[in-house]
Automatic annotation (TrEMBL):
InterPro entries (alphabetical): Glyas_Bleomycin-R_OHBP_Dase (IPR029068), Glyas_Fos-R_dOase_dom (IPR004360), VOC_core (IPR037523)
Gene3D superfamilies: 2,3-Dihydroxybiphenyl 1,2-Dioxygenase, domain 1
Segments forming a coiled coil: none
Protein name in the entry: 2,3-dihydroxybiphenyl 1,2-dioxygenase
Sequence segments annotated as region (Disordered): 1-31
Highest classification ranks of the organism: Bacteria, Bacillati, Actinomycetota, Actinomycetes, Kitasatosporales
C-alpha cells in the first residue's frame, strides 16, 4: 500500500468550480502513483458470460449497440465510433461479469507490464486478434491489458441536434423542425466501468500503480474523512490529451464486482428518445434522466434482462492530466445536480436477505469493511 505523498507539482489547482468538493488536505491520498508501470489509454472492452446469446443480442440492439461479429459461442458488440469492439459476451451457464480489458498505448508497454508482473504476453486468437497480459486485481477480478486488437471502422453517426437558444436573431435553426426519431440510442463508445470492492484502498493503489490511472474525484464517508476515501473516479493519464473524467470508478462495499458500465450517445435527445424506446419494450429504468456531479454526464440507467446495469450518457467532463482530485462527502443526493432522486434499485439498498448476508460475511472477512464504515455507507446512501 502506498503511503500518502504530496500532490505532484504538475497537478493544477483547478478543482475549484469543476468539482463539488474541495481539494486534498495535507497528507491525504495524492490520487496518482509516482511511477506507474504503464499508462493505459482507455478501456477496450468488458467481458460477460450469458446463457442466452439471442436474448443478449436483442437487448444489445435495443440499447443501441451493433453486432461486430458472432460465432457459435461468442457475441462481439461495438459502438459506432472507430475502435475495438466494446463488449464480449460468451455463452456460459450463468449470467456473469468476467472483467475489463484496458488498452495499452503501445506494444512496448504491454511487454513492460508483462515483465514487471511476471505474466506472459500472449496472442489473442479470437475475433480482433492482438496480444494481451492477463492480471488479477486485489479484489479478485480478472483484468486484461491488450494491444494490437483490430479496430472497427466508424459507422454513420447519429448527429447531435442543432438547438435554438438566445434571441430569434441568433437562432441556429430557422424554417426547420426538430424530430429526433424514437429509435435505439446509438452507442458511440464504451465510457466507463464501476466496480464495488471490499478492499478499496488496495485495489485503487493497484490500478494507479499498474495501469497509471489517476484520480479525478474522491468521495469519503461523512465524519470519516480521516480514514481515507471510500470511492474514487479515475481517468487515464494521456498527458495533455483530454480523457474521460472516469474510465474506472470504484467504491468500497460489501459486494465485490460489477456495478454498472456506461456508453456514450450523441446528445440528450438521443438519450431520452432511446430511453422511451427501451421503456416501450418493457425494460426497467433503474434511474434517470439526470445530470451527475462527478463527471457531469447527463445519465440514464437501465437494467438488462439479467439485471446488469448499463448507462447511456452524454456530455461528460474531459480532463487532461493536470487536474488534481476533488474531495467530497458521499451521499445519494450528491450523485446528481438534477434529476429524480436516486432510486433504491440504483443504490442497491433494497433490503433483502442476500444483501444482509453479504454485509455479515464482509464484516467477518479480513478486508476494509468494518461496522463504522458499513454504517457510514448506509447513512450516505440514505441521504
Ligand atoms: Fe456511470
Amino acid at each position: 500500500m502506498n503511503d500518502p505523498t504530496p500532490i505532484p507539482a504538475r497537478a493544477a489547482d483547478a478543482h475549484q468550480g469543476l468539482h463539488s468538493g474541495q481539494g486534498a488536505l495535507r497528507g491525504e491520498h495524492p490520487g496518482r502513483a509516482d511511477q506507474p508501470i504503464i499508462k493505459v489509454v482507455d478501456l477496450a472492452w468488458l467481458e460477460f458470460t450469458k446463457p442466452d446469446l439471442d436474448r443478449a443480442e436483442t437487448f444489445a440492439h435495443d440499447f443501441g449497440f451493433a453486432t461486430a461479429a458472432r460465432t457459435e459461442d461468442t457475441l462481439y458488440l461495438r459502438g459506432a465510433l472507430a475502435g475495438p469492439h466494446c463488449l464480449v459476451i460468451r455463452r456460459g451457464t450463468a449470467s456473469r461479469f468476467i472483467g475489463p480489458a484496458f488498452l495499452a498505448a503501445d506494444a512496448t508497454d504491454l511487454d513492460r507490464l508483462g515483465r514487471a508482473t511476471g505474466h506472459q504476453v500472449r496472442p489473442l486468437t479470437e475475433y480482433g486478434g492482438g496480444r494481451a497480459v492477463d492480471l488479477l486485481d486485489p479484489s479478485g477480478i480478472p483484468v486484461r491489458v491488450v494491444h494490437g486488437v483490430a479496430e472497427e471502422p466508424i459507422r454513420p453517426l447519429r448527429q447531435a441536434l442543432v438547438l435554438n437558444t438566445g434571441t430569434p436573431a441568433d437562432a441556429a435553426r430557422v424554417n426547420a423542425t426538430q424530430r429526433p426519431p424514437r429509435t435505439p440510442a446509438q452507442v458511440q463508445r464504451l465510457g466507463h466501468l464501476v466496480l464495488s470492492t471490499r478492499v478499496f484502498r488496495r485495489a485503487l493503489d493497484w490500478y494507479l500503480q499498474h495501469l497509471g490511472l489517476i484520480v479525478s474525484d474522491f468521495l469519503y464517508l461523512d465524519g470519516q474523512r480521516g480514514r481515507g476515501p471510500t470511492m474514487a473516479f479515475t481517468r487515464c493519464d494521456r498527458g495533455s490529451e483530454p480523457a474521460d473524467h472516469h474510465t474506472l470508478a470504484m467504491h468500497l462495499g460489501p459486494d465485490t464486482g460489477y456495478v454498472h458500465s456506461a456508453y456514450q450517445v450523441a446528445d440528450l435527445d438521443v438519450l431520452a428518445a432511446g430511453g422511451e424506446y427501451l421503456r416501450e419494450r418493457g425494460y426497467h429504468r433503474s434511474w434517470g434522466i439526470g445530470r451527475h456531479i462527478q463527471g457531469s454526464q447527463i445519465f440514464d440507467y437501465w437494467r438488462d434482462p439479467d439485471r446488469f446495469m448499463l448507462e447511456h450518457y452524454t456530455d461528460g467532463d474531459l480532463f487532461d492530466n493536470t487536474l488534481e482530485p476533488g474531495w467530497a462527502a458521499m451521499s445519494a443526493s450528491g450523485l446528481a445536480q438534477w434529476g429524480p432522486p436516486a432510486t433504491r434499485d440504483f443504490l442497491g439498498t433494497t433490503p433483502s436477505p442476500q444483501t444482509l448476508l453479504k454485509a455479515i460475511s464482509a464484516l467477518r472477512e479480513d478486508n476494509e469493511i468494518d461496522r463504522a464504515r458499513l454504517l457510514g455507507l448506509m447513512k450516505a446512501l440514505s441521504k
